[in-house]
Amino acid sequence: MIKQIMLILKFKEVFIISSVISLKDLLNTLDYRHLYNWIDNTYVNGISFDSRKVKPGHIFVAVKGQLHDGHNFIQDALDKGALAVLAEKEPTAGCSVTWIQVPDSRLALAQVSTCFFQHPSRELLLTGVTGTCGKTTISSLLNHIYYTADLNSGLIGTVQIQNGSQSWAANMTTPDALELQKMLRLMVNSGVTHAAMEVSSHGLAQKRVNGTNFRGCIFTNISPNHLDFHQDVEEYAQTKKRLASLVETGGFILANGDDPFFRTLKKPYESTLFFFGEDPSCDFHIHSISSGLQGSSFKVSLPIIKQLENITSQKDSLHLHIPLLGRHNVYNAAAAAAAALLINIQEENIIKGLASFRGVERRMQLHRFHDLYIIDDTAMSPGSIDAVFNTLEELPFSDLVIVNAIRGSRGTRVNEDNGRFLARWSKNLKVRQFFSTSSISHVDERNKVLPEEEEAFFQGTHSLGVSPKHFGELPEAITQALKVVKPGTTLLLLGAQGMNAGLATVQEQLEKQQILVALS
User: Fold this and answer.
1) Is 117 exposed, middle or buried (0-12, 13-18, 19+ CB in 10 A)?
2) Residue 484: how many CB atoms within 10 A of its CB?
3) I want to staple 54 with a disulfide (CB 3.0 to 4.6 A). Which of 80, 132, 198, 241 is the partner?
4) Per-residue pLDDT in tens (0 to 9) along the chain, 520 residues
């Protein structure tokens, strides 16, 4: 029988969780190899896998990471008061604390974290979203639909974490297993009933979401990405597909039926598999798309909906509008709408939610400064680059000027691909000027552009005869770009972390140089 005490305190609008659990209860969640120095009636008051965060009464989980091996810091954890160790290796000679040896520390961390916080996802209606592009927008759209339906909702994603009315900046797309379960418990204890979550390939490969219970999942699309971490695109796609195995019995799996990787998805366990897309065979068929500068209108036919039990909607189709640019956002909106229907959200709340959604920061955002148009997008992979330029191709933008921030610390493969895709589009759309930057002073060590990544990017552009003008610093690149703009120019600010300060830099320089006067 689990003996657990959980104290919830509200301090400065943040809920703090204090918990105590029997070590035996944590042990029962594990498939362990050996148990050393077992002591009955031991209780732990926390879990740590970072020795710097260990407090007296914690269990320390030694995880081997990409840069550091937690096994090398076990003694540090013990010196700080850890009363038990969970590790893949055997204990060192003379060790007197309880030591649980497991085959996989990452999996064990997820298991004990889930148990410690009392399986919070079982008390939530949680939807996971994975794929190369669209995760942030779809999860944000779904969260906004919940808000429109007056539901207390939560969001875990790349840009922010939201717990009902509270929100704060996110550090990574999918938090580590310990932080994830803590967030989910916080949500439950705050009254959240529905939540949407981005699930990255790293999160799946590193078992951060193991033990998490999903009501449903959404598969967006696959294009080459994170090939510094995955062996190849096939292995990357297979990793993404693991999310389907975490969907609860009777839940739903919603996949892009126009994506060749996800079209081959097979039905696992007892979950129901649905497809969305423009292919007429899709269960949620997208058609009648009309796009412009005010967004997109489209219809989603629902041939499957009347066959489903426990779904109140009986409409044959939905006529939807989103104030977002691009065909890719039609797919994002259709996926969010389909998931909402499967969760039994009323059609009117879906329609209102999509129509009132104002987008996500740096996701195909359009800004206008007198006669200068600015499009700001993270465009960090071939797929997202295609999405941006496919949109531009369909809209009345001309006289294009690009400033692209090279992607840092993600390997040479993606940078060479990005360079080649940007060069191809630059030629196809007759881009007038193409600038690039490494944003040296605007990224941290985790996103620093390495010399070989810079070289790979230019190998990609040069392979198609395109030579961007490169600047080490972001403000330098922006300054040069603004020198060549004129009334009617569309300035593209593209790239991941290195371009996060791009729009603010443009605004500062426009005011400083009084370029607005010339453009008016």
Assistant:
1) buried
2) 13
3) 80
4) 344 444 444 433 344 455 799 999 999 999 999 999 999 899 999 999 999 999 999 999 999 987 889 999 999 999 999 999 999 999 988 889 999 999 999 999 999 999 999 999 999 999 999 988 899 999 999 999 999 999 999 999 888 888 887 877 777 678 899 999 999 999 999 999 999 999 988 889 899 999 999 999 999 988 755 555 546 777 777 888 889 889 998 899 999 999 988 888 766 544 689 999 999 999 999 999 999 889 999 999 998 877 787 777 778 899 999 999 999 999 999 999 999 999 999 999 999 999 999 999 999 999 998 889 999 999 989 989 999 999 999 888 889 999 999 999 888 989 999 999 999 999 999 999 999 999 999 999 989 999 999 999 999 999 999 999 999 999 999 999 999 999 999 999 999 999 999 999 999 999 887 655 555 5
Task: Say if CB 186 and CB 161 are below 8 A apart.
Answer: no
Buried b (16+ CB within 10 A) or exposed e, 442-474: bbeeebebbeebbebbbebbeeeebebebbeeb
* Residue linked to tokens 């064990």: 108
286/256 Cα distance (integer angstroms) = 11
CB of 469 within 8 A of CB of 480?
yes
- Give the residue carrying structure tokens 């875990």: 156
Residue 261, phi-psi category: left (phi > 0), alpha (psi -120 to 50), beta (remainder): alpha
The answer to whether 513 touches 482, Cβ cutoff 8 Å, is yes
Q: CA 251, CA 381: separation in Å to the nearest integer?
A: 31
Of 455, 456, 397, 453, the closest CA to residue 425 belongs to: 397
What interhelical angle do 327-342 and 382-394 show, nearest 10? 110
Name the maximum alpha-carbon separation found in the chain: 78
| Dist CA 367 CA 419 (whole Å) | 25
Residue 374 CA from chain centroid, whole number: 24
Nearest to 488 by CA among 402, 426, 403, 400: 400
Rounded to whole angstroms, the Cα distance separating 252 from 270 reads 9
248's tokens: 């609860």
Q: What would the two tokens of residue 148 be?
A: 């429109």
The answer to whether the beta carbons of residues 416 and 424 sit under 8 Å apart is no
For 251, the 3-state DSSP assignment is strand
| pTM of the complete model | 0.88
CA 386, 388, 394, 396 dihedral sign is: negative
Q: How far apart are CA 376 and CA 363, in angstroms?
A: 7
- Written as one letter, the residue type at 477 is A
Task: Please state, in angstroms and rounded to a whole number, the distance separating the CA atoms of residues 60 and 81.
Answer: 10
**CB–CB of 326/387 below 8 Å?**
yes
Residue listed under structure tokens 């994002």: 332
**Residue 492 · residue 485 · CB < 8 Å:** no
Tokens 């259709």 sit on residue:
334
